[in-house]
Write a structure and sequence with these properties.
This protein has 275 residues and is of the alpha+beta class. It has 2 domains: 2-17 and 32-177, Jelly Rolls; 190-274, Winged helix-like DNA-binding domain superfamily/Winged helix DNA-binding domain (Arc Repressor Mutant, subunit A, Orthogonal Bundle), CATH 1.10.10. It has helices spanning 2-14, 40-47, 52-58, 65-73, 152-160, 166-189, 192-211, 223-230, 234-246, 262-274, and strands at residues 75-80, 85-87, 95-101, 104-109, 115-121, 126-127, 138-141, 145-151, 216-218, 250-253, 256-259. It has a 4-stranded antiparallel sheet with strand order 1-8-3-6. It has a 4-stranded antiparallel sheet with strand order 2-7-4-5. A 3-stranded antiparallel sheet has the order 9-11-10. A hairpin with a 2-residue loop joins strand 10 and strand 11. Helix 1 (2-14) runs parallel beside helix 2.
Length: 275
């Protein structure tokens, strides 16, 4: 099992970057098949790639196979059921998780039950990597989830022993910081229409890294989850998705949506930046 995990992580880390073309043909698209994890050692390269943290860990030839084996030897395969928590808010957690299958919702709640979702982690993302051991948010599985769980101390020692990875870690941290500023702008200054459009674009671009370019957008989260991510009410999120559907921008399909007019959705999402 450790060998399979090591191979999966190595394949994920070494996956080549996918260029982002300016124009994409979305004709004759269909929903992609679900990600498979029954044969991680042979399929990981095509299914667990391009997340920011995976890109930064060792996307170069300086990490030897011994390094890959050492990294894989730190990991333990974990499985979680829908609604199960990987860790609770303010837990003192000892582990970092590399998400292999499924989607994880990271959120923080107030005492009265109000909640804000900070991120939907996709296959290839690391969870619990930021901050100290006292985690400010909870991580909840939105469906069946599989991760490679790695001791935080062992992970830190691994990076200390791999100085050639530090520039990539810095680059990934810079990207995360930029995303944080974009999210602050979205929450504070975007209209509801712009927020929903920006959510679709954000999730579509992130899924492209996992399963390739397609107009089908998997949405394993509920409308309430989308509302909590965008800081709008459940009813508002549902109504705006319905408006987009009536305008011919998308079709609601089982398990997600199919985006019919991506250029228009991008224009809506970018309207606030142009103002």
């Amino acid at each position: 099992m450790q060998d399979a995990i090591g191979e999966a992580i190595a394949a994920a880390i070494m996956a080549p970057a996918i260029p982002s073309p300016h124009k994409v043909n979305y004709d004759h698209v269909r929903a992609p098949p679900p990600l498979q994890v029954s044969n991680l050692s042979s399929q990981a390269s095509g299914q667990i790639h391009q997340a920011a943290w995976v890109e930064c860990l060792a996307q170069d030839n300086q990490m030897s196979m011994d390094g890959h084996a050492a990294f894989g030897g730190l990991a333990k395969r974990m499985r979680y059921s829908k609604a199960e928590l990987l860790f609770r808010q303010n837990d003192i957690d000892q582990y970092v998780h590399l998400l292999i299958k499924g989607v994880v919702c990271e959120h923080r709640s107030l005492a009265d039950g109000r909640r804000l979702i900070s991120r939907f982690a996709l296959p290839g993302d690391f969870i619990g990597l930021w901050g100290d051991r006292g985690l400010g948010s909870a991580a909840e599985a939105l469906g069946p989830v599989s991760t490679c769980r790695i001791s935080r101390d062992a992970f830190a020692h691994f990076l200390d022993a791999s100085p050639h990875l530090w520039p990539r870690m810095q680059s990934a941290a810079d990207r995360e910081s930029a995303l944080g500023y974009d999210r602050m702008m979205l929450l504070g200054r975007y209209t509801v229409r712009e927020k929903v459009a920006a959510f679709f674009i954000l999730m579509l671009d992130r899924w492209h890294r996992v399963s390739g370019r397609t107009a089908y957008l998997p949405l394993p989260m509920t409308r309430q989850d989308i509302g909590d991510f965008l800081a709008i009410r459940l009813e508002t999120a549902s109504r705006m998705i319905g408006i987009f559907a009536r305008e011919g921008l998308l079709i609601v399909v089982p398990g997600g949506v199919r985006l019919l007019d991506l250029p228009r959705i991008r224009l809506i999402a970018q309207a606030a930046k142009r103002a």
